[in-house]
Amino acid sequence: MMPTDHSLESRARIEKDSRGESCRVICEQDLLELSQILNIPLHQMYLQSMEKGIVPLRYLRNMPSITLKQQITLQTSQVAVVGAGGLGGYVIEGLCRLGIGALHIFDPDAFDETNLNRQVFARQNTLGYPKVQVMQECCRLINPAVQITAHQIAVKGQTQDDLFADVQVIVDALDTPGDRLTLAAIAGKCCLPLVHGAVAGFGGRVMVIHPLDGRMETLYGGQENACSAEHLLGTPVLSPAFIASFQMMAVLNILFGKNQSRDSRMIYVDMEKPSLDFFEF
Amino acid sequence: MKIEIRLFATLASYASHGEMDADACLSFDGPATIRDAVQRLGVPEQEIKLVFLNGVGVSLDSSLKDKDRVGIFPPIGGG
What we know:
The complex is a heterodimer.
Chain A: H1 8-11, E1 13-16, E2 22-26, H2 28-38, H3 42-51, E3 55-56, H4 57-60, H5 68-75, E4 78-82, H6 86-98, E5 102-106, H7 131-142, E6 147-151, E7 169-172, H8 177-189, E8 194-200, E9 203-209, H9 215-220, H10 229-233, H11 238-256, E10 266-270, E11 275-279
Parallel strand pairs in A: 2-3, 4-5, 4-7, 5-6, 7-8
Antiparallel strand pairs in A: 1-2, 8-9, 9-10, 10-11
Chain B: E1 2-7, E2 25-27, H1 34-41, E3 50-53, E4 56-57, E5 69-73
C-alpha cells in the first residue's frame, strides 16, 4: 500500500556516511514517486531534498569531498560542454554523475570507428548516431536529475553567444585550434570562464581561460590550421580520461569559488614520464 | 652553466640529442639564450609554440643563467 504522507521527511531514512556519522538519506525511487505525486520536476525534488538536509543516496559517496551545501550549488548550476569527443565524453559523463543541474552539450558529429579507441560513448551500437543524442540518452539513464540539452551544431560563430545565456562556465573540449579561438571569443563576450583542455599522445594540458584574457590567442594564434601534436602522436584513451578529470576539477573549483587566484596556471601532465608541471603566462 | 631543458609532446624526441646529459641538462661555456639551446638541439623553430623559463612564458630570445629550467611545447589541439 502506498504511503499517504507525501513529504520528503517521511521517505528519508538514517544511514552512516563515510565518516561513520548518521545522516538522513533518500533513494531515487522515492524521489521519482514524490516528483510524480506532487507534480514537481525531478531536479527540483532533488534540490528540495538536499535543502532539507536529506542526502540523495546517489550523492552519499561524494561526501565529504563534496559537501551537501556544495552539492546544492552543483544542482543549481548550468555548464556548457563544447565538443563531445574524447575529452567531452568524459567531462559530460562526469558532470552528469556529479549532479550538475543543467548541462548544455554541443557537437555536430556522429560516432565513427576511429572514435572507439577513446570516446566513452562510442560503442558498436552507437556508430553512425549523433554524439550529443547518444550522450543525452545515456546520461538520462545515469542521472535523470540532470537536465541535458543536446545541440547537434558546431559552435563556430560569435553570434551564437545566446547559447550560453544561463551558463556559469564553459568547457572547451574541442579539437581544432580555429574553433577554440572562436569559442574563447564567445566566452569572453559572455564574460564566462572557459576551461580549456587539450591532449596529444600520453600528455595533455588544462587551464582556465578568463574572459578576454587573450591567452587562447597565445596558445593558438596564427596556427588556426596548423598540424598539431595529436596528429603525429595520436590520442590513446589515457590522456583524455586524465585531462577530462582535471577539467572537471576546474569546473568544480569555479562553481565553488575556490582556487580563484591559482586557477589560471597551465597544468601539463605527461603520463609517460610521468610528470606534472605548472606554467604561467 | 647548466640548463635543464624539457621538451614536450612531439618535441620530446629532440631530448635524445647527444649533448643532453642524463638529467636532461645542456651545458654552455658562455652567455646563451633559449634560441641558442634550441638550435644546438636541432629543434625546428616553426615546430615551437610555447616557451617557458622557470615556469613562466617567455620568448626564444630570453637569456639563460645557471640552473634555469626551460620548457618548450609544440602546438597541441587534440580533444
